[in-house]
Amino acid sequence: MAGGATFSDAKPTPILKDELDIVIPTIRNLDFLEMWRPYFEPYHLIIVQDGDPSRTVRVPDGFDYELFNRNDINRILGPKASCISFKDSACRCFGYLVSKKKYIFTIDDDCFVAKDPSGKEINALEQHVKNLLNPSTPLFFNTLYDPYREGADFVRGYPFSLREGVPTAVSHGLWLNIPDYDAPTQLAKPLERNTRFVDAVLTIPKGTLFPMCGMNLAFNRQLIGPAMYFGLMGDGQPIGRYDDMWAGWCMKVICDHLGYGVKTGLPYIWHSKASNPFVNLKKEYNGIFWQEELIPFFQSAVLTKECTTVQKCYLELSKQVKAKLGKIDPYFLKLADAMVTWVEAWDELNGSGENSSNLTNDPEK
Ligand SMILES: O=c1ccn([C@@H]2O[C@H](COP(=O)(O)OP(=O)(O)O[C@H]3O[C@@H](CO)[C@H](O)[C@H]3O)[C@@H](O)[C@H]2O)c(=O)[nH]1
Ligand SMILES: [Mn+2]
């Protein structure tokens, strides 16, 4: 062909390369990154080292990262460090605080690259970005799942007035192999593994809460960052393994109020490690019965029209936590205060977000 097209052999720039940070909480070495290298190497990592700050975390060569241990958290936040959990994966939210990027992907260090039924490796980061850059449909359920996906669309009867969708704030990925079961379920079904790959992304309808798991999660930090506080857990706290749940409930109430969407489904990661169910039972047991009162609280939480920014919504929620949940346990009074401290720390490091209510509805902007 005369003058045939020429193709440079330059690799395409990884999507959102300079707009996304990968946040990893860890008490281990990070050899797991070797498997993720093709997907993560172009991105900046924020490693939050939990536990003993004098321990050295081994990070494979070639990654661009910042590492923060407890000494760094205390140095950067001063007294406000009290809102960041110690000896619990909830510490990861410090990474959201110090990031300067528009998007966050957080992943646990026992999560590996999964394969789809065809045997192809799943680029979890790429799928999360697709989920975040495409709108959500929380106001009317599309029975053919994600209408913005290649080869799908809105089905007959779907109102055209709603087909623009709303900006997506959170993309909640799932897990093959070890599913995110609570301790009682883990104890009852120790050998159960999740082998079911469901090729779907769903928007969680407005007004519906869900159990958000933090091990394979991405979000638009600019839209919803101040709400992604992983509640006080671990050392000195009467509850554990409910940090991500707490964040998910607060976040969803605020997304519903501000008109943002939350998706769940693809991408899958391979969760390799079943943590000890007996240890988990000790951590979770308060949460297992407290949640029977927490869920109705969030289901009935009302945010007024004065709540025009995420911070204002979050501070209003913390007031309601203090007023209505303190009777369950004094822990919730401490948690309500920690929620305020988190917003203060967020505003100190990132500005008050007064203009965040003027965010465009264009998920690209
Ligand atoms: O004290 C700690 C314990 C762990 N980490 C880091 O946090 C993640 C998760 O740790 P792990 O995989 O051991 O914990 P899981 O029982 O699988 O639970 C996690 O998965 C979700 C719930 O199922 C939720 O994300 C976690 O609770 C790893 O990166 C550890 O290194 C920590 O920082 N501090
Ligand atoms: Mn795990």
Automatic annotation (TrEMBL):
GO CC terms in record: cytosol; Golgi apparatus
Keyword Isomerase: yes
Substrates-to-products reaction catalysed: UDP-beta-L-arabinofuranose = UDP-beta-L-arabinopyranose
Signal peptide from the UniProt entry: none
UniProt subcellular location: Golgi apparatus
EC identifiers of the protein: 5.4.99.30
GO molecular function, one term: UDP-arabinopyranose mutase activity
Entry-listed glycosylation sites: R156
Keyword terms, alphabetized: Cell wall biogenesis/degradation, Glycoprotein, Golgi apparatus, Isomerase
Protein family: Belongs to the RGP family.
Protein name: UDP-arabinopyranose mutase
Source species of the chain: Malus domestica
